[in-house]
Design brief:
This protein has 345 residues and is of the alpha/beta class. Helix content is 29%, strand content 12%.
């Protein structure tokens, strides 16, 4: 056997085969349909339920409710603000899945859950309707007056929205109605916090806070998040100076910003009022300057009610004061905290 024959026998193949040829791509081949939003939400629920995070968080929420609302036998209402768009954000789907699981665990009827975010797309609104959640129609910059025990879920919202919520409930009777699941307010240490966000600055030291453990499946959806509430006993000894707040116009002047901004015009789209994590592009009109809050026991000035005389509007489980926001008023959009990472879109 010569050298060529040896090489041939050493590297030859015993079985003959035909090399594969590249198949021609078929034109107009139908694309696979993307999963529906309901399917994506179910996936998020399954991921969230895997492991101990959800079980431990539900236990922490139950314990917090017992401490925050000890005299209440009825299930609390739920107000969800700044959720984001479940149709475009994995984190928003995880937060919605958590909210639904928490309500089911606490036996809260879903018709007692109200939600608002200016970035809600038509698909999001359709999903909320399927889940029997109430989509609030008006943008109130989180200025909701809560007259009964309420869980307020505000994941990674802008600081001024937390301020607006607290200001609207700034009384010894109403602050204990608020159980907030949101960014830890005690973590804010801005130099101008006391002047620009006096409610947050004053209340933070008296809050009972239970931080949520980081979620492995959704690390950016629940980071820096705590269950927070204030006991009525912690407010009993606060003096008149503590309860007296500067009015909104004075606070806005200290920040160099106007207290009112133009409402979105008919030609504007959702992008014009979009507020996603890491992006702040607000078009809306917050409530006008409010009267100065007075100390408990004095006669506080009341905001003007609507012309129909209805002072309180009950939106399926969420009791809020129906104050005059103006015909073109648009309140609170969601925005990220400076400490929270960007939401995936």
């Amino acid at each position: 056997m010569n050298q060529n024959e040896a090489s041939s026998s050493q590297f030859g193949y015993e079985d003959h085969f035909t090399p594969a040829r590249t198949r021609k791509k078929r034109k107009n081949r139908p694309q696979a349909a993307p999963p529906s939003l309901t399917v994506l939400l179910d996936r998020a629920s399954e991921e969230l339920a895997h492991g101990d995070w959800l079980r431990e968080t539900q236990q922490s929420l139950r314990e917090s409710l017992e401490e925050a609302f000890p005299a209440s036998d009825a299930a609390p209402s739920v107000l969800c603000l700044g959720l984001g768009s479940p149709a475009s954000s994995r984190d928003a789907r995880a937060q919605l899945a958590f909210l639904l699981a928490a309500c089911d665990d606490l036996s809260i009827d879903r018709t007692n859950v109200a939600a608002f975010d200016p970035v809600f797309a038509p698909q999001d609104l359709e999903l909320l309707a399927q889940l029997r959640l109430t989509a609030l129609p008006d943008n109130r910059q989180a200025s909701y007056e809560l007259r009964s025990p309420t869980i307020v879920f505000m994941p990674h919202c802008d600081l001024h929205l937390y301020e607006n919520l607290l200001r609207e409930n700034w009384s010894p009777a109403q602050l204990p109605n608020v159980l907030l699941i949101a960014n830890r307010l005690c973590d804010y240490a801005e130099k101008k916090l006391a002047s620009e966000h006096p409610c947050v600055a004053r209340l933070a030291p008296y809050l009972t806070s239970r931080p949520l453990r980081p979620s492995t499946a959704f690390p950016t959806a629940f980071n820096n998040t705590s269950i927070q509430f204030v006991r009525a006993s912690s407010l009993a000894e606060r003096g008149a100076d503590w309860w007296t707040l500067p009015d909104v116009a004075a606070t806005s002047a200290s920040t160099g910003q106007s207290a009112r901004t133009p409402a979105p015009g008919p030609e504007q789209t959702t992008e014009d009022v979009k507020l996603s994590r890491g992006v702040t592009d607000v078009s809306g009109e917050p409530k006008g300057p409010r009267e100065e809050r007075r100390a408990p026991g004095s006669a506080p000035a009341r905001a003007q009610v609507r012309s129909n005389g209805d002072e309180v509007a009950v939106t399926r489980g969420v009791q809020v004061a129906d104050r005059d926001h103006g015909a073109d008023g648009a309140d609170g959009a969601r925005a990220p905290s400076a400490s929270s990472p960007s939401r995936d879109q």
